[in-house]
Amino acid sequence: MHQKRSYAVVLLVSTLVGLLEVALTVVVVVLYVQTQPPPDRGPDRVEIGADLVGTVPLIGFISFLLSLVFVLPAVALADLLGRWLGRHAAWWSAPLIVAALLTPPVFGYAAYNDTQTRATLLFWVSATASLSLGALIALPRGDRLLGRVALWGTAVVAGTGLFGGLGLAVGLLPAYEPPRIGPEAMTGTWVDHTGNTLVFTADGRVTASGVGGRSSHDYPDNPSPSCSGSGTWVYEGGRDVWAQKVRVDIPGCGWPAWGVDGTAREPRIHQHIGDPGSGEKYKLRKASGGS
After folding, report:
1. Could you tell me the strand order of the sheet in which 197-200 lies?
2. Could you tell me the pTM of the whole model?
3. The pLDDT of residue 214
4. Residue 9, SS3 per DSSP
5. Phi/psi at 241 (nearest 5 deg)?
6. pLDDT band at residue 88, thresholds of 50, 70 and 90?
7. C-alpha span between 260 and 244 (Å, rounded)
8. In which element (H, E) is residue 249 found?
9. From CA 148, how far away is CA 144, in angstroms rounded?
10. Which residues contact 71 (CB under 8 A, 6 or more apart)?
11. 3-class secondary-structure state, position 128
């Protein structure tokens, strides 16, 4: 005789699964970010961490509502089908029921807002997979189900972070490194986000046109005039790709050495700007076809 199902446990388990899915997504995103070029403005990790912690109650509430509206009915209907067709029917029917329950609100909202079909389908498939996982994990009956889900779910999240970090450390995951550009790649035109340029020539000459300007309106604590003129440049390889520098000497332009980032296909050079430690960068990219 089967143990009577507690739908309160179904709600709790599904809500917990939703929280664990979000936590796993955050871990995967953090690992992925380590493989990508840094943004123009470095993230404030303390602020981001505080925001994530602060949103846990909201995420939990949303997960509870989704479980109440979609997962709980899916499990109840799967139980009903299981009684009619045999107990194994619950396992294959639960995802189908979740998909069916999601169809009216997702596609109704998409039709009302004229959302692209591809984006709607991707969202519908993702939501179905996420909520179906909660339904399938909540299907077994047992007094210790919640504890097992909490233990194994936490282990999966922590294990992903641990092994992902080890993978980055030993090179199994491709941690980001700046490209080794060399002096040959420096020759040509480099442009900022507003069209100002540095033009490097193979004979060691460089011409600046409006480079590096920061207005007192945008940077009241650290303004600087734009720089134009001609001078010389030299590339320094350094001990590794992180230490390579490009020194530009133009009268009236008091720049420290430019750092290198971007990718081999889209190299960039940068200056650190803003408050010390802000991580904000002013970048120039190699113009397409520039050589």
Report:
1. 245-249, 227-236, 205-211, 197-200, 188-191, 281-286, 267-272, 259-262
2. 0.77
3. 55
4. helix
5. -65, -25
6. low
7. 7
8. strand 245-249
9. 6
10. 10, 11, 14, 98, 131, 134, 135, 138
11. helix
Phi, psi of 10, rounded to the nearest 5 degrees: -55, -45
Residues 6+ apart with CB under 8 A from 59: 18, 19, 22
CB 262 within 8 A of CB 248: no
3-class SS of residue 263: coil
> Nearest CA to 193 among 180, 178, 165, 212?
212
Alpha-helical (H) ranges within the chain are 7-33, 45-66, 72-85, 89-113, 117-138, 145-170, 182-186
Spatial distance between the Cα atoms of 90 and 160, rounded to a whole number of angstroms = 30
- What pLDDT, in 10s, does the model give residues 209-219? 989 755 445 55
**Joined tokens for residue 109:** 């909202």
CA distance 74 to 13: 14
The letter for the amino acid at 196 is N
Whole-number Å distance between alpha carbons of 60 and 55 = 9
C-beta of residue 270 within 8 angstroms of C-beta of residue 284: yes
The count of C-alpha atoms lying within 13 angstroms of the C-alpha of 198, restricted to the half-sphere facing its C-beta, is 32
CA-based nearest residue to 252, from 208, 284, 221, 291: 208
